[in-house]
Design brief:
The chain is an alpha/beta fold. The protein is built from 14 helices and 17 strands.
Length: about 425
């Protein structure tokens, strides 16, 4: 193979050299941890010394690999091999896969969203070698039982003495109560390597990103500690505790009623939640959560997901033109009337309602874990006002329950709008 030069952040040198079974890498947004892991794997998978190694990339929902782990690995391949990519790597888009033409080592991508996904993990095989490495991106999305299934796959004698078994976790430490902290950070064990990184140690970050983080530090100090400093999210000030993440049947017929909640966005997320109601309890069944998409693109995505046009869709009233566009495309979109104190009234309603969240709703889970009250800078006391940052799914959730909260009948497509 032609000698290549790769730019690494020196801060990751120890992590790249670690051969411990669990390589657990928490850090801030923009710390470069995922970029580093992708480069590390591409170099090793291309190295004849590691012939027989194979990598499994995991997200909670398999399709999210396309714009995360797969995209990062492709970026690493392009940086390392430049114009000679096709000479050294075979890249497939459907299903997603990579294969080194130098070593025969492969990369595949999977999710662990349901029982069917987890069953597929048990039958993974490679043309050459064994499954040796697993990369779990956005690891806080997974349940502990998901990781136990992955861990069980790494076993047996390895034919090449240079090979070793390892699971790498990359994530933002959203909550100090997360099982990852208990399992890997609160103990000392010879098989565990932990690593901490921030955007301040990333020499490739631009000045505009630094300014953006300083703005977040000013507007959302608690969020900055997680997404700017890579520290565990504190438990205090969290708005909702009465939720449970678990699998459940999301079929329309099992619920007493269903509806959507939508918060419009472009630079920040446009979030749509499919909500079900059963015996007075709220179920977050599905989500559509995207950035930098115009309304027509989002509608097309909603149609591909099979979102019903017969269910009411409660939307942010500040965007009447977007609501009109959704209506023209046949969706039962309707504005939520905003009144003084409505946000806190919606929160009070949510706090009194048992909330179930399907594990596939990864962005809803992330947001609800860090949705917090603002803190008075002088007194340190929490205010009755939520932090307005990284709260797009929470806004969609608030809009989606407004009809129930106000005890108004649901508006269905085809009925007479009041």
């Amino acid at each position: 193979m032609t000698t290549v030069t790769v730019n690494f952040n020196p801060h990751f040198r120890d992590s790249n050299q670690s051969r411990k079974r669990y390589r657990v890498m928490k850090g801030s947004a923009g710390s470069g941890k995922s970029v580093n892991v992708a480069q590390d794997y591409i170099i090793k998978l291309s190295d004849p010394r590691y012939r027989g190694a194979n990598l499994l990339c995991v997200r909670k929902v398999n399709e999210t690999n396309r714009n995360s782990t797969f995209a990062e690995l492709i970026g690493a391949i392009n940086r390392i091999f430049g114009s000679r990519v096709e000479e050294y790597w075979e890249i497939r888009q459907s299903p997603l896969s990579l294969r080194s033409k130098i070593t025969g080592n492969s990369v595949i991508f999977r999710g662990v969203n349901d029982a069917r996904d987890r069953e597929k993990l048990k039958s993974i095989n490679f043309p050459h070698g064994k499954l040796t490495w697993i990369w779990v991106e956005e690891a806080t999305e997974l349940q502990e039982s998901d990781v136990d299934i992955l861990d069980d796959r790494l076993r047996g004698l390895l034919p090449n003495p240079n090979l070793y078994y390892q699971i790498t976790f990359t994530f933002n430490p959203v909550s100090a109560s997360h099982w990852i902290k208990r399992k890997y950070f609160d103990i000392e064990h010879p098989d565990i390597f932990t690593h901490h990184s921030t955007y301040l140690q990333n020499r490739f970050i631009d000045e505009a990103y630094h300014r953006r983080m300083m703005l977040r530090k000013e507007q959302d100090p608690d969020g900055y500690r997680v997404y700017g400093l890579g520290e565990w999210g504190e438990l205090g000030g969290q708005i909702l505790h009465n939720y449970q993440v678990h699998e459940f049947d999301i079929s329309y017929e099992r619920f007493d009623s269903m509806n959507f909640g939508q918060d419009f966005g472009f630079n920040h997320a446009n979030a749509i939640l499919l909500l079900g109601w059963k015996d007075g309890e709220l179920y977050v069944c599905d989500e559509l959560y995207v950035h930098e998409k115009d309304t027509d693109e989002i509608i097309a995505m909603a149609e591909r997901k099979g979102f019903s046009k017969h269910l009411p869709m409660w939307c942010d009233s500040a965007e009447p033109d977007r609501i009109k566009t959704w209506k023209k495309r046949g969706f039962a979109a309707r504005a939520v009337k905003k009144e003084p104190g409505s946000v806190n009234a919606q929160i009070d309603f949510l706090k009194r309602t048992k909330i179930h969240i399907h594990p596939s709703c990864v962005n809803t889970i992330k947001e609800i874990q860090q949705w917090k009250w603002k803190k008075d800078k002088k007194t340190g006391l929490y205010l009755d006002e939520p932090v307005e940052f990284f709260d797009d799914a929470m806004a969609a959730l608030r809009y989606g329950i407004e009809d129930k909260r106000a005890a108004k009948p649901f508006f269905y497509a085809g009925s007479t709008e009041r």
